[in-house]
Amino acid sequence: MPQYDFRCDACQHRFSLRFKTYAAADEAAPHCPACASGDVTRLISQVAIPRSQRDYGGLTSQEMLSVLESGDKRQVDEMVRQVGGRSPDGSAAPSPQSEDSPEPH
Ligand SMILES: [Zn+2]
Description:
alpha+beta
């Protein structure tokens, strides 16, 4: 369940909200719980992916998006390398350019 941090631009109050889905979070228009202002900014927080795991190929597209949004370049590079370079278990990772793996229809 995704959780996002927000900061109110009106009173600088910081708060967190949980959403059922990432889509719901994207469409949400949260209001500050302190002053009820709708002028809030979503803060990018670190994504909790265990460093020992490092299996980005197993992430869902939404989780990948979270990694990208985190702005952690090392993590993003690693993910792109794993997902774009090779699929460890042959699972269908969404890749716009799959040169050597024909898609079954
Ligand atoms: Zn506020």
